[in-house]
Amino acid sequence: MEPMNRMHEHFEGETAEAPMMSRCTAAAESAIQEHPLAMTLALFGVGLGLGVVVGSALAEPMGVRKQPTAENLGRKILDSIAEYLPASVQKQLHT
C-alpha cells in the first residue's frame, strides 16, 4: 500500500477542490501583479492589525497595573508629610 500525501493531491489537481484552489491562486497572483504596492500595504495593515489584537489580548492593561502603584505612592507621600503636620491637618489627610 502506497502512503497517501494529501498535499500532493491538492497541488497535482487530483481532488475536487483543486480547480477552485487554482482559480483562487490565479486571482491572487493577478491582483498582486496588477497592484503590487496596494497589496503590500494591505497585507502590512492586516499584519499590523493582527499584531495589535494579539498584543492587547496578551498584555495586561496599563490602567489596571499603574493605578495601585500611583495610589500607593500617593499614600506614602501623605504619610511621610503627615509626620510634620499638626494633628488637625493629619486627621483631614487620612479621611
Automatic annotation (TrEMBL):
UniProtKB keywords: Membrane, Transmembrane, Transmembrane helix
Keyword Membrane tagged: yes
Annotated TM spans: 37-59
Keyword Transmembrane helix in annotation: yes
Taxonomic placement: Bacteria, Pseudomonadati, Planctomycetota, Planctomycetia, Planctomycetales
The protein, known as: Uncharacterized protein
